[in-house]
Structures are given as structure tokens and as C-alpha cells.
Amino acid sequence: MEQELNDFVRFLKEIKKASNNTVQAYQNDLRKLLFFLEKQNITTVNKISETSLNSYILSLEKEGLSPASVTRNIASMKAFLLYLIKHGELQGDPSERIKPPKVDKKAPYIPPIALVDQLLTQPDLTTRKGIRDKAMLELLYATGLKVSELIAIKTSDINLSSGYITCRGVNKERNIPIGRTAVKALQSYLEKRTDLSIQTENDFLFLNSIGKQISRQGFWKILKFYAKAAGLADITPNTLRHSFAAHLIENGADIESVQEFMGHSDITTTGLYLKSRNQSSREVYMKSHPRA
Predict the structure, then answer these.
(1) Which helix (H) or strand (E) holds 191?
(2) Average pLDDT of adjacent 10-residue blocks, the chain of 292 residues
(3) How far is residue 196 from each of residues 121, 124, 128, 130, 155, measured CA to CA in Å?
(4) Domain count within the chain
């Protein structure tokens, strides 16, 4: 079954154009599956059965894997089997009736606005790097972009006069308004961006010190540095994305608009941020009502 796995990995890379992280995740999950099946003397794909797959899932649960991790493994399994079926290597889907465990979605950690403000004031605006970092942080909080979307933004995607930025996703694009603070930070950065571009024709908005597109890892290091300086231990790029949505809802934005800004296909995902607002409202009530 090693050959089938190698063919599937090649399909992900060359046809699906999946990222290296995605391909590696599939490989890790599926190698674990194949190792389990081979221990059960299942050495060819046509011997894979619903029973053997259920046994594998049970073994994952006995290992103590979280429901989310088990769900990811099932998704990898189903994608691999579907590939085999479409390429005529497997008749019927042994995973058809296998369902992932229910995963309770918890509301993400949302820092108070004051703590976000504390983070956003950390960059040193007397340096080109600080000006760039300030623009990145302000834009992330102003738009709720994912890090992959942030680093992919090009200069042609921003319209500061209208106060909008265009995010071009895989299947759709969305226009997101940006406020005065983010516009000001971007204007300051664009004045210095030429110094960072080192006379290249790179159109990516945010560049590193040698004029190349800044990487995900590069942004992570930047955020970690400023979070530590601000005394914030739990800040991640997703924290700013979540804060964008939660703070909008907390201040009266309708959930449909926030769903559009975030690019969520399912409004129930956006609905998680209502939990944060409800908690905030309760705290206000308990502190303010004379009979609370």
C-alpha cells in the first residue's frame, strides 16, 4: 500500500497544489493508518474493510487522542479512499458509514480591547521595521485576515482612499473595510516600503529586510516578540483574527456582516463569537444591576 500512498501524495502536490504543511499532515495520518492495517495482515487496499477502519479509530481513541485529532485522521482516511475509488483501485467505500466524533466547539480566547491596544502600541515607529510591523498588526486586527491571507496581500489589493482592502481567497474574494488607524499605519509603511523593496518588482505588500514576501514563520516571530514585550503570553495570529470578530459583535455589529468579513461559509462558526459577547454582557449586568 506504500505505492498507493506515494501516488496520493503526488496527486496532492501536483494536481491539488496542496501546501507542504497539508501534504505532511496527510502523510503522517495515513502512514499511521497503513502501519495499523499491516499489523492486522491487511497489505492491499482491496482488503480494507469497515471493520478494520473502525478498529483503527478505536485504537486512536484508546491512545487518548482528542476528538478533533480523531476527526482529522478520519478526514485523511476518507480523502485517501476517495482517491483510490476515483482512480479505479478500490471498489466501494469502506469508510462510507464511518462518522467523526462530535467535537464541541469552544469559544476562542478573546483578550479585552485594552490588551489588544497594548500589543498594537509596541512597535518602534522610529524604525522602518517598526513601521512595517505596526502596519501588519493594525491590518490584521482591522480586517480579521488569516496570516496566510495577510502575507499574500499585494499593493494592488489596497485602496486607502476608499478605506477597503481586497482579500483574494482560493474560491472567492471579499472586500473588507479598514478604519482610520489601519489606514494611517499603512500610509506610513508605504512611504518606507520602497526602502525595503531593494529595487525589486515584488508586489507583495509586506516585505522582509531583503525585499522578499514575508513568511508565515517570519510573522509569527514578530508577533511573539511584541506579545512578550506587552506581557501577553497567549497571543497568536488567530487571537487577533478572533478579537476582530468578537469586538465587532460586542460593539453591535450584526453577525451576517461579520461572517462576510471573516469569509466563513457557515454562520454557526461566526456564532461562536456571540458567546464572548454574552459573557461580556453578563459581566456588565452583574456589576451594574442593583438587584444582581
Answers:
(1) helix 180-197
(2) 92 85 89 94 92 94 86 91 91 89 68 85 94 94 86 91 81 80 93 66 84 90 91 80 75 66 59 53 44 38
(3) 22, 16, 8, 12, 14
(4) 2
Residues 101 and 55: their CA atoms lie apart, in Å, by: 14
Q: Please tell me the distance from the alpha carbon of residue 49 to that of residue 38, in angstroms, as a whole number.
A: 13
Q: What is the pTM of this model?
A: 0.56
Handedness of CA 63, 64, 70, 76 (dihedral sign): negative
Identify whether 188 is part of a domain: yes
Give the number of other CB atoms < 10 A from CB of residue 160: 14
Which residues share a beta bridge with 207? 213
Q: Are residues 61 and 129 in the same domain?
A: no
Cα(142)–Cα(241) distance, integer angstroms: 9
Domain that holds residue 206: 113-287
Is 205 within a domain? yes
User: What residue ranges in 86-144 does DSSP mark as E strands?
Assistant: none
Q: How far is CA 290 from the centre of its chain?
A: 43
